[in-house]
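Figure 2 data, in text form.
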Amino acid sequence: METVIRTLSLAMILTSFVAVGARSLPRAIQAYMAQALLMVAVIASFATYHAPLAVWAATAFVTKFAIISWLLRRALRGGEEREVEPLVGPVWSAAIVGALAIASYQLVHHHVSFLAPTPAAETEPYRTNVAVALTLVALGLYAIVTRRDALKVVIGVCLIENGAHLSLVTLATTMHETVLIGVVTDVVLAVFLLLYVIRGIVERIGSRDTGQLSLLKG
């Protein structure tokens, strides 16, 4: 099971690369959907150690995969499917994303005792999961900072949340509160509100470009 969890976790990095780097928004959304399923599979795998986590896995399937994916696709419906030109070009973006992933992995593997001071974090698959979680957070923040398309910003928020949840299920697998915390900290409501605001912005200025938000003044 340790090998399965590690493989699922590492696959989440690949989906993050596509979600952040793809200029096609349908492809970016599909990458998020794939990551949502991987997150559900990771939680379900940990449920073999702590059965109550199965409840969280089921909830995550409904919220992360079904509801949030549907909200993202609905927000894109009828709009421009190509991402608004980002602040960083594709070549530099790919280099930065790769560097963030490598830096996150190296940081955790060399300083895991400081970042996650638990005995389990120094063994596999827990150490890899912490590295992946940090990578997801870093890539999500990168998307929020460098992407001008509001939908990509929302996807960045989702990546950060997946990273936080991966670290939670990894480091607090057997805590009774883990399931409750995981369920109540899901960002489905935040995503709904963000997409609602984005729809209003598009209706007002005709674009999802966050660089044009100044047009809302006056």
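Caption note: Residues 40 and 60 are 6 Å apart (CA to CA).
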